[in-house]
TrEMBL record:
Residues 5-236 form the ABC transporter domain. Pfam families: ABC_tran. It comes from Marinomonas rhodophyticola. SMART domains: AAA. It comes from the Bacteria. The keyword Nucleotide-binding applies. One of its GO terms (molecular function) is ATP binding. InterPro entries: AAA+_ATPase (IPR003593), ABC_branched_ATPase_LivF/BraG (IPR030660), ABC_transporter-like_ATP-bd (IPR003439), ABC_transporter-like_CS (IPR017871), BCAA_Transport_ATP-bd_LivF (IPR052156), P-loop_NTPase (IPR027417). This is High-affinity branched-chain amino acid transport ATP-binding protein. Keywords: Amino-acid transport, ATP-binding, Nucleotide-binding, Transport. The lineage of its organism: Bacteria, Pseudomonadati, Pseudomonadota, Gammaproteobacteria, Oceanospirillales. SUPFAM superfamilies: P-loop containing nucleoside triphosphate hydrolases (SSF52540). Belongs to the ABC transporter superfamily.
């Protein structure tokens, strides 16, 4: 297994508040790795620190053998890392097509047309809505758009921050099926989720974060049956 990304003893502070405490984790090529934890645990902080926002205060973020923790967001994005951020953050007044084109900014327009066709094959719903303003779509469609936009930069590692947030259970199922399809193309995925049940079923491996620290790690299957995880994140049964 080739390691794609590694956090080594990463600390992050927001002023006097320490949001991440000696966080270490590994993502190997071709894996789906999930990070689960309650609201406020530090999941988004970890994901955003990959893009230097916020900057880490100590430790290292090694990506393909290089410490990227002090690099610019642009450098990171143009080297194969793309995220679907928490809350989707699509461009509301732009069309689906325009949103997808925004995803190509880190790599340029060369493959834009072909890649957009590929996204429309993977997400037929987006094809139907290609000229529609993004703000007028449902939450699930907007989430599909956020994932497709991230894929437009041809990432080596797809980062997802709570893609199931605020969506109805049936739509959550669809989104996780899409992630499974994306993974089956060989994509490496790092999935941050509060929806531990879905995330652990999908993932090869998982980490559990509590108050900025990694408390547990194991395969998805191991964590699903772990009594502590069941008690804290799966309603105890
Ligand atoms: N920009 C910020 N400034 C100060 N504190 C922040 C900021 N962003 C997040 N925090 C704090 O850091 C902690 C972790 O937040 P976050 O990473 O958003 O958690 P999660 O994504 O797991 O819900 C929380 O206590 C939150 O209040
Ligand atoms: Mg978050």
């Amino acid at each position: 297994m080739t390691t794609l990304m590694q956090f080594k003893d990463v600390d992050v502070h927001y002023g006097p508040i320490q949001a991440l405490k000696k966080v270490s984790l590994t993502i190997d090529e071709g894996e789906i790795v999930t990070l689960i934890g309650a609201n406020g645990a530090g999941k988004s902080t970890l994901l955003m620190s990959i893009f230097g926002q916020p900057r880490i205060s100590s430790g290292e973020i090694i990506y393909r053998g290089e410490d990227i923790s002090q690099k610019s967001a642009h450098y990171v994005a143009s080297n194969g890392l793309a995220q679907s951020p928490e809350g989707r953050r699509i461009f509301p007044s732009m069309s689906v097509e325009e949103n997808l084109l925004m995803g190509t900014i880190p790599i340029g327009m060369e493959h834009a047309e072909k890649d957009m066709q590929r996204m429309f094959e993977m997400f037929p719903r987006l094809l139907e809505r290609r000229n529609q303003r993004a703000s007028t779509m449902s939450g699930g469609e907007q989430q599909m758009l956020a994932i497709a936009r991230a894929l437009m930069s041809r990432p080596k590692l797809l980062l997802l921050d709570e893609p199931s947030l605020g969506l109805a259970p049936i739509i959550v199922k669809q989104i996780f099926q899409i992630l499974k399809d994306v993974a089956s193309t060989g994509m490496t995925i790092f999935l941050v989720e509060q929806n531990a049940n879905h995330a652990l079923k999908l993932a090869n491996r998982g980490y559990v974060m509590v108050n900025g620290e990694i408390k547990l790690t194991g395969t998805g299957a191991e964590l699903l049956v772990n009594p502590e995880v069941r008690e804290a994140y799966l309603g105890g049964h």
